[in-house]
Amino acid sequence: MTSERTDDQRRIEESIDRAADRIGSVWPLHSFVTANPLSGFEDEPFHRAVAEGRRLFGGRGYPHPSVFRRAWEDGRIDPDVLDAELEAHGIDRDPETLLEELAETEAQRRETETDDATAEVDRVLSKWLAAFLDEGEAKWPMPNREAGFYAAWRGVAPHDGDVPGCDDADDLPETATAALESVLGDYPEGRWVDILERHLAALPGWSGFVKQRADDADPWQERYPITLVEYLAVRLTLADLLDAPIDPDDGDGETTTAVGTSDTDDADEPPLPEIWLTAWEKSYRRELLEGIDDSVTDPSATDDGERPAAQLVFCIDTRSEVIRRHIEAQGPYETHGYAGFFGVPIRHQGYDARAEADACPPIVEPEHRVVDRPVDEAVTAHDRWNGLVSAARKHFKTLKTNLVAAFAFVEGAGSAYGSAMAARTLSPSAIARLGDAVDERVPSPHEVCAPAIDYDEYDDRDHADHDLPQGMSHEEKVGYAQTAFELMGWTEFARLVVFTGHAGETTNNPFDSSLDCGACAGNPGGPNARVLAAICNDEDVAATLRERGFGIPEDTVFLAGEHNTTTDEITLFDSDVPESHAADLERLREDLEAARAGAAAERTASGSENAAVEEVERKAADWAEARPEWGLAGNASFVIGPRDLTADRNFDGRAFLHSYDWTTDPDGDALEAIFAGPLVVTQWINNQYYFATVDNAVYGSGSKVTQNPVGNVGVVQGNGGDLMTGLPLQSLNVDDDRPYHQPLRLTAVVHAPVERVTEILREHENVRTLLENDWIGDLTVVDAEQENAVFRYAGDLEWEADAEVEAMAETESAAPTAPTADDD
């Protein structure tokens, strides 16, 4: 009997694992990760995945017809490109007729109707999920959470008037597995995956959050465990008690008709909206390639021999593209792009932080624990100030929430609170200036602390109390520095080298982490920059790197900085810069301020740089500002190559820029790392922005106006329901109906030999799948070994010469030869 029960449990868990493959992971809002909401379908062609997303979630997968019309009328879709796409698919109707057809199909679109019993299951389950998954917000936490979700819910269910037929906990199965066996036992095993898949998809926000938390096993999960087995046990038990359909085929067969879809969704031929989308993407690709300097073949040959005043390394984030241009305009500065965690996968705890945070992409596991430690006597002043502020906040919070003291507190402090609220509302700029004045007088953590990166800085060297090593060895430090230099193709160094992380600044915004560094899992990038700078300043590390061929001059000093992407201010963490570099540092500060003013003026379309700086500072301080900045809205391309390839080109903040020099990477290892890491992450970001734009209600999070934060983990619309999974409307749209973000799939451009790229795709099937299933819209190689001939990836490790380049080449009787998978 025991073995039979164990076998039943195994088959149920296997069915759940298969069903959960289709559900995307959802991260807590305090470390917002921009991920593809249809990541579970990336093994299918894009148009089929869109159809599956419609079936499971009821979401639209293509831009609204009005968005296509606006792009067409604004000239963003090239008529010649559209004609070629239509002809390739055998469509001979004119664009105006096709736009009208799309609009008519949209008018016929029906929303999925949920029966009342299932809606009640959703409501009750969401209520208890919010209570169980709370991360410190609730004053009266759900009891018995340490026993797990099913056990905790089973204990309170008899006291919930919304749960019928349950007067005692013993009325319910004792374990989650037993509960699932009780419900699923009435259905053939062949139906289990479909049943479980539809129940997971009913609340994809909560189920995706449970999936992510169970996989990552963070401290909250360790203390209050929940699994998809428990989640589904509660859901199916509720469905059974509330007489809701268990098997989706038991319902009325309602389906959702998505715009522009037809019976061809499951065939090889993409639907009409995808043809329009592809034409739009190819039109953008044409513009992008026109901004690429095709005269650069050997990056080292473009070096004029002048040592730059400073080298600044920024995250590949699209917002860095704007500030980099303005810095380079100030003088002899080099800027470079590198993934914003700077290749150092750490779990970081700041000096003032109560908790640790993983500071690396979700596809990378942290390998070291790094803690900030005081290094300056000024830490006393910092501690004193922060202690007073923390005590005051705790005292006021206690008074506001205490039943006895609350009324007296309001009577006594109401006028002061009212005045403060009026000031924040009517004069946010003044509040910002006051905050800046306080910051100037109180030492910041980065001024008095430094990351402890050596093993011998920790008492617990063997990390007995932690699951990660504390600090890192000499060889590990050398490896991180060497990898950074190799990926960027560095052979020469300035007197000042600045690793510049980034973070957003915003007030009263649940989505503030979405403005921070995605490569740092929705956290500021400054700590990672400080770690890499400390590594490179280590004399023993520098000596080893010189032995390995990196000519680091004795006068090169590495330092860290952080780019505030809301205000474009760059803070330098320069406490260790020697006096010998004081003049260099002062000049850099002045030029960074000038670059900031220029970038702010560009972003705000202001004629006055001073007014632009004031405006971005106001946006950062205004607690009524729903859109402090645009984040990565507009992202459309990823360029991998030397800065000379894109220098002096304005990509309007739409391009991720990763530095790469193919001449310093003979084995292609650096390029392989970029493909396996940053390219995959940018595809996640791009798909999140795409789907949240085309259907914000399903794949985004709707308007901020009607959102409510829940349990420090996310937001819901209204007073309950599913946890929302993506970006809010205000991060994507100019208004309710007009997108600011242009929903295009990623266009990738690589400056490298095409054979090298072919070998990387051959080795990395996951990246090849993203390309061949059209999750990445296009991969273009500018072949440095064939005089920058341009090739487009055609699938199956084959390439085709760019049509326009080929036409020009025919004129000159020198057409490049497109390599094939068999070429060596």
Q: Using the CA coordinates, give the radius of gyration.
A: 28 Å
The spatial strand order of the largest sheet comes to: 11-10-14-15-16-17
In total, how many beta strands? 17
Total of domains: 5
Distance between the termini: 61 Å
Spans of at least 5 consecutive residues with low confidence: 252-266, 805-814
Query: How much helix, percentage-wise, in residues?
Result: 40-55%
**Beta fraction:** 5-15%
* Shape by Cα distribution: globular
What structural category do the secondary elements indicate? alpha/beta
- Average the pLDDT over all residues and give the rounded result: 88
Q: Treating each run of at least 4 consecutive H or I residues as one helix, how many helices?
A: 28
How many strands, what sense, and barrel or not for the largest sheet?
Answer: 6 strands, mixed
